[in-house]
Amino acid sequence: MHVIKLTGYLLIFSFILIGCSDSDDDTPITDALQVGNKRPLGTSANDLLSDTNFNSLTIEIVSVQGYEPTTTTITGFKQFLQERLFKPDGIIITQRTLPSSNKRPFTIDEIIEIENNTRTLFNQEDDITVYIYFADGSKEDDTNEKVTLGSAYLNTSIVIYENTLRKLSIKPNSPSLATIEIATLNHEFSHLLGLVNIGTALQSEHEDSDSKGHCNTPGCLMEAAIEFGGGMGIGNGVPKLDPQCIADLQANGGR
């Protein structure tokens, strides 16, 4: 059975704290609303996992025109969230497209600037929100040996380097685009959920000592370099969280 291993890491995450911009001083109410979504990675893990403070989740997907995720991807991603989160009032995924920023390849600072200019949904009452940007380029420091598929860079912020995913999907014997998209989304969102040991406490020792924030269990979704196995189908092609990662999430309020 053919196994494809992507040599590139799924994630290069960083703990970045964004302060209010001086240019927004004339809109203090907006700033106050946004502060809950401008915190370090992993700090909203319990809020995303449990219904203690937020009963629902709204995900704002903003894609560059022509780089939207597939319908199959959205279905698979939502199923993953429903399996792991307690959100009795539901999980809503909104989608819209925008013209290219023409900034590619991207630094994280440029992605943050794009989010600041395009994000419209923020935590409100008992609804927590997540922003996901599908970019039309790659990460700035990609090489022939290592590519970044996505980055979780704040507590409710993710970028997916869709152009990179599409290039990978057309290589010989590669998984389908939807398989790669689902795996990348699930992996990056799991970092928002605090995996591995970045906001959700370890219940057992399974953090990769060579790649902090990732799991050392072979085949786990949270390995630093992801493997697709079991053929090309969506059903068995997307890696799953291993029992140790699931136990961590359950201990922090998840399913």
Tell me about this structure.
This protein is an alpha/beta fold. It has a single domain, classed as 3-Layer(aba) Sandwich (Collagenase (Catalytic Domain)), CATH 3.40.390. The protein is built from 8 helices and 7 strands. The protein has a 5-stranded mixed sheet, with helices on both faces. A two-stranded antiparallel sheet has the order 1-7. Strand 2 (56-64), helix 3 (71-84) and strand 3 form a beta-alpha-beta unit. Helix 3 runs parallel beside helix 6. The longest helix has 16 residues, at 177-192.
**Total beta strand runs:** 7
Query: What proportion of the residues form beta strands (DSSP E)?
Result: 15-25%
The parts where pLDDT drops under 50 for at least 5 residues are 1-30, 230-235
Please tell me the total number of domains.
Answer: 1
Q: Give the overall shape.
A: globular
Q: What is the CATH class designation? A: Alpha Beta
Distance between the termini: 32 Å
Q: CATH-wise, what's the superfamily?
A: Collagenase (Catalytic Domain)
